[in-house]
Predict the 3D structure of the following.
Amino acid sequence: MADDLFKLYQDVILEHNRKPRNYVAVDPATHRGHGYNPLCGDSIELTLDVRDGVIHAIGFQGESCAIATASASLLTDTLQGCSVDEAEAITARFRAVMDGQDEEDLPAGLEPLRGVRRFPSRIKCARLAWASLEAALAGDGEDGAASTEG
Amino acid sequence: MSQVDPVVSTASGLDVDAIRARFPILQQEINGKPLVYLDNGATAQKPDVVIDAVSDCYRSYYANIHRGVHELSQRSTTAFEAVRGTVQRFLNAPSEDEVVFTRGTTEGINLVANSFVRPRLQAGDEILVTGMEHHSNIVPWQLLCDATGAKLVVVPFSDAGELDLDDVAARINKRTKFVSVIHVSNALGTINPVAEIVELAHAQDVPVLVDGAQSAPHMPVDVQALGCDFFVFSGHKTYGPSGVGVLWGRYELLAAMPPWHGGGDMIKTVTFERSEFAEPPQRFEAGTPNIAGVIGMGAGIEWLMGLGLDKVAAHEADLLAYAHEQVSAMEGVRIIGNARRKAAALSFVMDEAHPHDIGTILDNDGVAIRSGHHCAQPVMQRYGIPATARASFGVYNTRAEVDQLVASIDKVRRLFA
Ligand SMILES: Cc1ncc(COP(=O)(O)O)c(C=O)c1O
């Protein structure tokens, strides 16, 4: 179990928590999504500049635990410059991994998040930013709101 | 049983080892470490006497109450009704007819809001609460205000987590129709000066409800000394089952209140033209209650009274003082709630680690705490924080467990440094 804890709070996660990448509000933003976990108060705001089906810029801000923060940071790092289609495919794979489909591949940058699986109470933390992304893209220019509660 | 526990708490004279031995759930390891259960503010674990009382009811005499002439129904009814006497002694209430069984604190507050306060309320009237209420002592009043045009007035508290009685006095006026206050804050641990607040309110003829969810398990409660009009608590926090609790109210007030829920057991006679309601407390107990739950709650309260609530309070005060001393000395850790009078709860935040991360890392060491807003989001907003980590103590906790808590917090510090 100590091993699992170590896997959860490995250097990559702690490092992204300490120095989150793309911790900005993209301005002007074409899409935004807000994720909120009412249980613990974690809150993440994603802003994107999407043009011609490509994510030209993506940033996040908010207040959240190490897992949620690192997940958001890794998300923005991974999806910067991706097409919306690619982003949606990666989101689906990430969701599958969190749902327990261990055989599913993840982009190498997201691999550190796999350890969260061993901590069921923290999966919703890891998913917060991804739920925000889904809300942002589904909103199609409108503000999207998501919750990882329940 | 762990070898490190002090056999006798020097602060209280309680034999904590013997107490721990009565809690089967405490005799286990979590993640390979002895369980250190410090989430008593959320709910307390159950001693064998409670587990046995519930089990014995189902195994040997369970039947519906108040409804049968047969032997089992009579035995169930007798055991169920005996709990009113237990609660009467627990709260030093004048009469056991003032003891209404509910599903818990939340239901008790909603009952008073709907049956007592609602009929007295007009647009422009005010209901006074404090800034440190649990959501269950906020939302029922908001619903009432929405329905009637009344206003919820909130007494703020200081950085330390204390109310200012002058401020309370200044907010009670001719429009104030009801005061509802938390006795001990679940988020901050503050023990509020409830008797003084009651005095201020009564000087203006305003009735007062005391939310005793976090006081009843931890200190002697005397509703006559407090002077309050209603007092509510939850059985699951007084070492009994969940889903049962108590509303105590002055008999003359209960007698003047209409029922909240209608159904069986709360009437004298029913015709399709009209029904005549039963006297309190039955008037407020429509339908088949949680019979074994109430009996289990009674067993838990008897057990607590057998220990002596003054001793329980002394033991937990010692643990809290010890924990305060240890945790406040840690760099990068900030205690939220530094009232002069506190009970049973230690909330804290860390510079580097979020409460959620603290909770996970402590759990890995077998230390169960709660991280979150503790159903007191306005308290979090008051301090500008999203959440806290909270260690909350019960009668079975020990100084050695506080040491484990502190060691685990230190581990968080090192990991996040
Ligand atoms: C101060 C306070 N009031 C009310 C409640 C609600 O109690 P219950 O959920 O048992 O109805 C709690 C429990 O968390 C509490 O701590």
Residues B 104-106, 134, 136-137, 182, 186, 211, 213-214, 234, 375 surround pyridoxal-5'-phosphate (CB under 6 Å). Chain B touches chain A through 20 residues (CB under 8 Å).
